[in-house]
From TrEMBL:
The keyword Transport applies. Transmembrane segments: none annotated. This is Ferredoxin. It comes from Collibacillus ludicampi. It comes from the Bacteria. Keywords: Electron transport, Iron, Iron-sulfur, Metal-binding, Transport.
Length: 63
């Protein structure tokens, strides 16, 4: 399992939850949140890719 955290530096670019809706959701203002506190192993690569490609580095993944 992997723990995903999104910091308040998110700029609501939409990328993470558009590409990986299994892992991320948006709130009413378009800011991203983890869909679950712990990400199942099968989705860990998605979480890592989102963290690497977030334009402001707002996503942290911890194993
Ligand atoms: S990719 Fe980063 S900046 Fe864009 S919505 Fe997700 S957390 Fe926010």
């Amino acid at each position: 399992m992997m723990r995903v955290t999104i910091h308040d530096t998110c700029i609501a670019c939409r990328r993470c939850y558009v590409y990986y809706p299994e892992v991320f959701i948006r709130d009413r203002n378009g800011y991203a949140h983890p869909k679950r506190e712990e990400v199942a192993d099968e989705w860990a690569e998605m979480a890592l890719d989102a963290a690497e490609t977030c334009p402001v580095g707002a996503i942290d993944c911890e194993e």
